[in-house]
Predict the structure.
Amino acid sequence: MLFNDNSNVNKSQKENLNLATDQLQKVFSEFYNSFNATLQEVQHYEKQLVSQLQEIQKQKEKLEKAYQQEHQHVKKLHKVLELIHDIFNADNEKKVFNKVFEILTTLYPKAIVKILSSNKKTNNINIILSTENVDPEKEWFSVSPTKSIMNLTHPKISCCNQDFKTEHVSLSRNNYNNVYVPLLSDEDFVYYIYIISNNGMPVVKKYDEDIINTVIKHSSLAINKLRILNILKKESHTDVLTGLPNRRCALKILDQEIKRAKRYNDIFSIAAIDIDNFKIVNDTYGHDEGDRVLSLLADVAASCFRSTDTVARFGGEEFLVILPKTQGIAAVQVLNRFRNAFNKATLSGKLKVKDITVSAGIAQYPIDGEDVESLLKTADSNLYKAKNSGRNRVEWLSSDLEQTSSMQIS
């Protein structure tokens, strides 16, 4: 009976133990499932975080690269702006092109850089400057290939710069192995920038648009400025009607000739010329005919005087001739030949008015004066003597030589 009781107790304990074990296993299973789910969730979040960190890293690298590119681009632009200052200080077009060439070779040191021009009528190419066997300091040279300039390469950038008006060059989103850019255009030529890869790798970046435009704009403006200044300078020293140097230019040349003669102990002569009875021509035939007489005198002078002589319209119907290395007596002979030639030209039927003559007065440096004022005064005095002696004459009086040369047309 006692034995049976102990068996029941052990059986009961065993059942309780099994029950407790089952409960424990159930709890552990639930905990494990919960822990596993949590672990998977953590791993999922970890993957997301790693992915986000990787994306952030990529963005960081991308931003760093963009910053470096922008930094280099800004440095390029600053360098261009520094060099452009020299473009506007250039006193001739060659120096402008040399400076543009310097800018491009500085920006693209690994590329072949050329500046070309194309004749609009013939399409022949002029190589102005090139990194291939060309010294920028030497004289420019030209070639005339048989190919049209548009067949040289297809332009990667297109713009129109007619009459120095520049348009914004537009680059696509690509980098370039070669770029062929119109720089500026005038009446006869189109000028181009040609940048070529030296190793097949892109040399012009897609973000270089503002640099290219800056170079184009400022070089065009610089050359335009030079050409306008040259026109203004020429106009300020040129008589519009005859195309001869005007009074201002003549006085400047006369002053330079005096300095030259003083330095080399040389001589020269000047002649004051006046058209006889010019007022009667204007009053009778009108000012248009008077203008034709003045233009005819300029044409005859071009064929009668040397290239080293200066013939200038000094005012109204008065002209001044400067004859370097010429004695007074020789100047009288030259002026008489001119006087004779002009008179014959007025009889040739080119004018309505006929038989127009001129009078002239000579002065020789230094015996008739050693400065501008005294030489002009002597020449003018001799001119009035020629007028008062009957016109159609050339007079030269040298009190130092005590001689007078007065010659009249035969």
In short: The longest strand covers residues 111-119. The radius of gyration is 46 Å. The chain is about 50% helix and 20% strand. Residues 2-89 form the longest helix (88 residues).
